[in-house]
Amino acid sequence: MEPVTFVLFGATGDLAKRKIYPALYNLYIEQKLPPYFHVIGLGRREWTDDIFKSNVEQSIADFSRRKVKDPVLLKSFLNMFQYQTLDIGRQEDYERLLERIEKRENGLSLTPNRMFYLSVGPEFFAPIAANIKGSGLGSAAGWKRLLIEKPFGHDLASARELNQQLSEAFEEHEIFRIDHYLGKPTVQKLVDLHQQHPELQAMWSEREIANVQITANEIVGVEDRAGYYDHSGAVRDMFQNHMLQLLMMVAILPKKVTPEEVPLMKRALMKSLVPLDLQQVGERVIRGQYTAGSIQGKPVQGYTSEPNIAAESLNDTFIAAKLLMEDDYWSGVPFYIRTGKRLKEKSTRIVVEFKPHAADAGSGKPAPRLLVIEMSPQEGISLQFSPDQARHHEQLSPVQLDVHASGQELPEAYENLLHDALLGKPTFFAHWEEVELAWQWVEPVLQAFERNDVPLRTYAAGSYGPAESDALVANDGYHWWFDAKETAADESRVLHPSR
User: Fold this and answer.
1) What confidence score (pLDDT) does residue 48 get?
2) What is the pLDDT of residue 361?
3) Which pathway or pathways does this protein act in (predicted)?
4) To which CATH superfamily is domain 4-149 assigned?
């Protein structure tokens, strides 16, 4: 791994505090950072290096999965950090930054490799990229890379405009678009799942998949993101990026590709998604907004009663959709996606439901066969069946697939993504063609929502979303798996089909 200067815009922000600094610390502990690694944090606050290091140290204490055990090691880590005040619109500040970076590179005879992480609002992406180019920061003899966070545009037109602006300063192979769902260890394991578990190959080769369900439930509301969320909604905040990325990753499973082939395969799969016209949006997409309810025994207010949300807001806090592919393998297999806020439980999972085999001897019903990929709150992959002894309770018996080393503490998503970016590995990042194709598919949905052609269904906070979401799946003879139900006799969590 080559030496690199890590230039962090937005170094005083929440993302840096909660994710970036803890990730770098854990990479340092595991000796996964390059030699002479150096961080220059940038922000508007008038901080000194010592104030900056103190804040980094506090973020490690508050958010790192590893607690500090060796103060000497921590001090060595903190010595890699320096701070500089920077106004995003002032090119003189960029030139001053260049002088500082070059002084260190020349003093240590380092190749000028530079990584620019934009932990700032998307409205600043283009001006920062332009100033990096204009100041000469991006013109060194070494490599340069740009890391940016979603959202990558607000719609198709703005996404294309942003991409054009970034491409004036960086080539596509130099741009690493972060979708933190792609950094989750279990998602990354999907690429080589076949090689690790040959028994899955037989199941896939039978081409007996009934449907695929992708769920991302949140119990939180808008919190302090009202200004952003009320103009984005679930469709922009979650569906266009995270959910479609998960769809691409699970659709790769039967394709048996190498990590290097993943980006090309994802683009091919996105191209195969059957587009919707405005009429079909109303038939295959459910739009919802939460009302007052109760979560974990505590009352919560409805969306339009949240601070800084207009009482007349028609913003979507929930979306469910049925998608189809024109693909040799997936043709005829429905993909159901749902995501929303203020739902009953926090969970992110993919369920691949195979067509049933012989009927269960006790119930006379076909026995389900599922591949369950859990990403939150726990991570893991399992095959689940309905054994005779559990049939009366409609529970499933899981067979865990050992995709992670026994006793291994899993890295955080940002650890994986930062490490891959430092290595220049693009496999688990969102590439422009994927982003563009995702916006193309979502565009009719946005238009239908803006015209109010799709009814805004309400759902009580603490539920699983609008009843119409259940009907979307039930109309095809299926049901959402693993919705938690409570009975008067037993209030413990029982996993079974929603009714």
Assistant:
1) 97
2) 45
3) Carbohydrate degradation; pentose phosphate pathway; D-ribulose 5-phosphate from D-glucose 6-phosphate (oxidative stage): step 1/3
4) NAD(P)-binding Rossmann-like Domain (3.40.50.720)
- Scanning the structure block, which residue is given the tokens 């269904």? 457
* CA 294 – CA 457 distance, rounded (Å): 18
- Bind-site residues for substrate: 180, 184, 218, 237, 341, 346
The answer to whether domain 182-411+431-475 has CATH 3.30.360.10 is yes
Which residue in 242, 392, 479, 496 is the catalytic one?
242
Residue 39 sits at φ, ψ, to 5 deg, of: -115, 130
The domain spans of the chain are: 4-149, 182-411+431-475
Residue ranges of the annotated binding site for NADP(+) are 10-17, 44, 87-88, 150
State the pLDDT at residue 359: 59
Give 21-78 pLDDT, tens digit per residue.
999 999 999 999 999 999 999 999 999 999 999 999 999 999 999 999 999 999 999 9
Annotated catalytic residue 242: yes
Who's near 442: CB < 8 A, 6+ residues apart? 235, 236, 239, 240, 244
Q: What share of the chain is helix, strand, coil (3-state, %, to 5)?
A: 40, 20, 35
Where is the binding site, in residues? 10-17, 44, 87-88, 150, 180, 184, 218, 237, 341, 346
CB-count exposure of residue 493 (10 Å: 0-12, 13-18, 19+): exposed
